[in-house]
Structure prediction request, 547 residues.
Amino acid sequence: MEEYWELLKSNRQRTSERRIEDLFEEDQHRFQDFSIITEDLILDYSKTNIDKDAKTNLVNLANFGSIQNKVHDMFSGKEINNTENRSVLHTALRNFTNPLVVNGVDINLIVNQSLEKIATFTEDVRCGKIMTNSGDAFTDVVNIGIGGSELGPKLVTRALYPYHDGPKIHFVSNLDSADLTDTMSQLDPKSTLIIVSSKSFTTLETLTNAKTIKKWILSELGPSGMKHFVAVCSAKDKALEFGITEDQIFEFKDWVGGRFSVWGPIGMPVMLAVGISTFRKFLEGASSIDRQFQNSEIAENLPIMLALIGIWHASICQYPSKAILPYEHRLEYLPMYLQQLDMESNGKSVNRDGEFIAMQSTPISWGQTGTNGQHAFYQFLHQSNQIVPCEFILGANCFEQDLRIDHHEGLIANCLAQSEALMFGLDPGKHFESTELTNNREERKHTNITNAHLFCAGNRPSTTLLYSKLTPEILGKMLALFEHRTFVEGLIWNLNSFDQWGVELGKGLARELSGSIKGNEDLRTFSSSTLGLVREIKRLKNKLDNS
Prediction:
């Protein structure tokens, strides 16, 4: 495997000054050679500096790493999460075709029973069979969760807005009281259903918010207001202690990690918003990518090739970040979702064997929807001295056909123009006349602007993921694609993409500090900075209390 790493590094050293547009001059079929085209999902990576040799060595890297064997291990239920001794079976939540038995347990049976229970409950809420304490239909639903218990369902619920025909869905995650109180101010407790989503049912932020909203509901409705609460968790006993009735507790297994959990019970807000039929289409889309992932040759395998491009940019080119740029307003939460997926999964410097890795692994993920981002940080993308690989995500069609010409076609033009501009750049001395900048030449006569101010270096890589239309099937395909990309990147870096031990450190310290901020517990183990800030916080609290 080391051989292919060295070949890739050598290729990069040899070609680092080469311009991407020159590759198009050399290969008239570059788009066809450096893209994967399926019926309704197209990955174009031709606007990167990956040439034929680099592509060959990336494919060899995956082959030598036995990626496809390891993919089979995940789908078959082997305990690939080695630090927690767990299988990784989020894909089983959308498996409609292949029997799956792990250690004598019929996984399909568990999944189908769980989905059927949730489907029955959500459809009964939607049609008014399950009613409020006062005998009316629920008009609003609040999902209380954080991390994977919020980001996945929030993204999918927003993305599938044209399919909404159920109660209005709200999300509360932040421990900041403003998140909860601002949401509560829009609601009537008499017609609001609360979903408490926490795998352990001990997550500090989620339980604090849940306890506060419980007081609010019960103060209005009395003890019978617990009828308005649902739990999604792996700890049934703790949900019962909270007061939620057994028939409204929906369990999921520990072989589903939080950031991979939207496909199952955690997806309840989505099911309430769009109905089980639409949700099943979402699952079917993901399942089709699962099959493609398992069965396609590497060079035509969407998740594996997307991962190899990421490896090239992060570990070979050593670009420290990447921009997620969906040109679809309903995908506004996608950059945030992918931040967690990538950075919680692979934001690690220690491999599966407990050894430190020498190379740069996952980059910083960030971004925003287009065209908003164009008027915020694209200046940085075009003219800063840092190169940021860009991932454009674009739909060929929109739902608002009456606005297609004025709006969507303009959106498409902007997206394609940006990837083109990032590649070619602008040298005013060479092709000044061909740019829109000529329109303002007279204006610029009265400024101090120079050609240097206008210069854009170009040669900045980007990929484009093109899809037909943001349907439930397409959304399922995209999210499964990104999940598998993250998994494959982790395999090549020899990381465990399914644990997150680094998250625990801050949680433990927060518990220690919480007592001190509320009282007078000894904090001698903390730094003078933290001790000083705690003193100042108490002073400012007392000042406000006494004013």
In short: The chain has four domains: 2-64+296-425+460-492, 91-280, 426-459, 502-545. Residues 107-127 form the longest helix (21 residues). The chain has a mean pLDDT of 94.
